[in-house]
Amino acid sequence: MGADVNLQSALYGTTLQQYHSKLASMEGGVSGAYRFIDNFSIGVSLHLVYSMLEFSMPYSLNPSIMQGIAMPGMTFGQMFSAPPSMGGFGYDEVTATAKMTDLVGIGFNGKIGFAYKMNDKLSFGLSYTMPTSLTYKNGSASMDMTAQLNDAFGKAVQGYMMQNPGTTSAQAQAAVMAQFSGLGIDLTKGVQANYNLNVDLKFPQSLGFGASYAALSNFKVACDVEWINWANAFDNMTIKLSNGSNSNINTMLGNNGTFSMDFPMNWKNSVLVKIGGEYNANEVLTLRLGYAYGGNPVPESTIFPIFPAIVESHLMFGVSYKISAPLTVHAAFEMGLNNSETASNPSLIADEYSGSTSQLSTVLIHLALSYTF
């Protein structure tokens, strides 16, 4: 899943900025099942999980992350957040154009399931999926604080001219450059940096229960209920940066180019309910219809446009057609009905999302072939 949008951001004026995300996951492995008695079976799966992750967007943080010493008794974070009347810039967040790419994570996952057949018509199932912890490694990140520093520089020049009437713009700029130099910031080096990148993220554990009932010889219905433990998985995403290449950024952040930060997510646990029916029209054609509802796990405080996983209702239609005795083609159409959510004010992600509304709908098409030996 992912999103690509171009949006205006206040710091960048009318120039559209790229907002991009991609989270892809694939798993596979071995499964085995054992039937203890005629109506009771246990199955186990062990899977290898492979995942990819990307993000690109203006990334905002509280100024307190800037722990470098600007002057005795004041960090850069305090200077950037202090009101102009106290010699600061008055920012409640600092923003950089950020891009994270080439992140790949490999982990392991286990599942166990129990099936009980009460009679020829009624069956029950219970399943558990373990959480999966992934560390995405060997990625690269870029950070560009040029827009933020230009805005701060402009404010400093304006403040200097107000405090020193009659000063020309060129004189004020030269004076402010000297002030920044005194703080250890060489403006000729800019504020763009590249980093090595690792990211920690966890996929949730889940517990599911299902029942299937054969109402007729050619018609059956089923219902599944699944609890997904998002709260212990998508609570935050830990971003680890190292080998930062820009001395100005390192000076402001108060590190040597290596640091970590938590991206807040704070997702809530959700319950997914699925109901469906299957009708064998004849020996070669099977029709299916289903509906699923899952509570939206994304809170208002952390919803933002490139990760709006907020769809709650899905409608599904499927068909299987037996081309020959061993070969069957399967197709399905799935529609995630539109859902919207308005971000809280303030937003935990960035001020620009406060009070914004995100909405999402999806259309998925599935196609498969099966061959029976």
If you had to describe this structure to a student in words, what would you say it looks like?
The chain starts with a strand and ends with a strand. It has a domain at 2-57 and 103-178 and 198-236. The longest helix has 18 residues, at 146-163. The strands form 2 sheets. It has a 16-stranded antiparallel beta sheet that branches. Strands 4-5 form a two-stranded antiparallel sheet. The radius of gyration is 27 Å and the shape is elongated. It is built from 4 helices and 18 strands. A hairpin with a 2-residue loop joins strand 10 and strand 11. The chain has helices at 76-81, 146-163, 169-182, 247-253; strands at residues 2-7, 17-37, 40-61, 69-71, 74-75, 94-117, 122-129, 132-144, 192-203, 206-216, 219-228, 236-242, 259-264, 270-280, 285-294, 313-322, 327-342, 357-371. Helix content is 12%, strand content 55%. The model has no long low-confidence stretch (mean pLDDT 94). By secondary structure, the protein is mainly beta.
